[in-house]
Design goal:
This protein is an all-beta fold. The chain contains no helices and 7 strands. It starts with a strand and ends in a 6-residue tail after the last strand.
């Protein structure tokens, strides 16, 4: 399936002294868009900008989804503060 994407630019935020991403490195995840399309990709979630990014396979560029995201999850990854896996995030709807 195809989905729309647009480039993203890294604008440094002076007040942030640490990595703004939930998970520092690209992590495999699944995305469900509100138009019912599903995507599996390398993902990063920017906590400061509240923006989900995915890695373009051809050029390793960071892109953002143009279509609204219903929910997304990081597969087989955990963060130091939690032993929950997979990590699932949704916007006003159940991800199950």
């Amino acid at each position: 399936m195809t989905y729309r994407a647009s480039p993203t630019w890294s604008n440094p935020i002076p007040a942030v002294e640490r990595n703004p991403y939930l998970i520092a490195n690209w992590a495999t995840g699944a995305v469900k868009l509100v138009n019912r399309k599903s995507v599996t990709a390398k993902l990063k979630y920017d906590l400061i900008k509240d923006e989900l990014l995915f890695q373009n396979k051809r050029v390793s560029a960071a892109l953002r989804f143009v279509d609204p995201v219903q929910y997304f999850s990081f597969n087989d990854v955990a963060i130091a503060e939690s032993n929950l896996a997979p990590l699932v995030f949704g916007r006003g709807v159940s991800a199950c």
